[in-house]
Amino acid sequence: MKLNKLLFLVLILFMAAGCSGGGSGNATATLLSIAVTPASPSIAPGTTEQFTATGTYSNGMKQDLTTSVAWSSSDTTDAPIGNTGLVTTSSSAGTIKITITASSGSISGSATLAVIASFEIAPTNKTITLGVTQQFTATATFPDSTTQILTALASWSSSSPSVATISNTSGSNGRATSFSTGMTTITATWSGISDSTVLTVTPMNNVLTVTVNGGVAPGGYPNEPCVSVTVCSPGTSTCQTINNILLDTGASGLRIFKSVLTGVSFTQIASGSGSLTECVQYADGSADWGPVQTAEVILGGEPAVRVPIQIIDSTFGTVPGSCGSPDTTPEATGFNGILGVGLFTEDCGSTCASFPGNGIYYSCSGSSCTATTVPLIDQVQNPVSLLPVDNNGVILQIPSVPLGGAVSVNGTLVLGIGTQSNNTPSGVTMYPANSSGNFTTIFNSRTYNDSFIDSASNGLFFNAGSISALTTCASGTAADWFCPSSTQSLSATTEGYAGSPSGVVSFQIGDADTLFQTSNNVFVELGGPDTSFDWGLPFFLGRSVYVGIDGKTSILGTGPYWAY
Question: Are residues 194 and 305 in the same domain?
Fold first, then answer.
């Protein structure tokens, strides 16, 4: 027993000796280098900066040497450093850059400390009108009065993105884009130093606020952009503002459900001895049926324009069998009406003016409705094209959202292109469209000459072809959508209908089933299968998309065209 106890004590002593000295594991390793962090900080005079020294050894291990190295400063007057790596700059520092060094024997490492007298955003307390962009700059001033523009290096933020967002994208750093009236604080941060200013956005007559929230109307759905429109009884001051109007860049004309109109009356347009009536059918199989009447329409703060609109009323006359099953109520569709601000003035054009079997316009007497021709002046028309000044197109601007979505975002519909200070084109390419409003998309080695851009389509719809990862959802609320197992990063080439110009558009497609199970309503990665290539609402997120009306001229060219 004594012998065993003695052996046990010897073992304890041996283990203790083996574990003593150099607990870091670097007792026999050679120090190869010292890294000083942060490597290039910037601070104001009269402030402090803590440096850290990390050693790398020959055995590959690293060790914090902050309290064991010898610290030195190239300017001991303006920036003395203590033995723990803490630098304190004097309030009257005159040196621009100071070298901080950590040494252990013959091994050393260094960092450069910049002393900045001031860091400022310009302009300050700026006021702009809604729809206008504002470029901010960030400038550092050094103790010797020299300056450096740091706009592209700073990190920018907006306290109220619904009022204005600000870009951190290369080439547009510091550019704020307004989306609604109000105030927001713009902040730039660089190397731990920041400055802020207030941006105020005031109303402008040619701007409508666009709300994308998927639930603003009963029956609303994801990626649904809506605006408010005011309609008046012709020749009177009796008006009504209708909200939850679906914004559609793929169509022309205003259509409103009869059930939401209260206190206003319009003038019925005649067709022969009957009432002019219309059936509009959409790619998703839905349709709108109802009479065509003249109303006065007010968009934003623009003057009222007198224009034919469609009253959506599935009980009017007798719906032709070719019109299918028209929409019946706002609750069933998720909106109170549709505002088409697409590429054309009339919703049908010369075809309906000359061909009675056009399947769109009818003359209804009592319950009897027969197909008819209709002159251009009586067709449902895009009210933008009738404005006195801002009549050559629109610009739709909607902020970007992260993958996974957002509950809601606000954007702007700016009326006119190059007609006012808030609609001057910048940094966009113009893509001509053909007489049908189509241009070309090339995706997965397949060319779609019937491609189009449509804000009323709530996803990106295209033929996945041989891309096996783009599986469709099995069932449920996500049926007929793509449900890849992981988010797919894709790209396509878009071209003007004549083959030029061309550009590459990058996009992503995610699992619709997963997206629909969140509380979000706005998604950039939502897509589904189709035979053509339909650039729906996700295409608009984070872009300014220009819609040039047919026959109208702007500094971008003569419509019809898209530009982005």
Answer: no
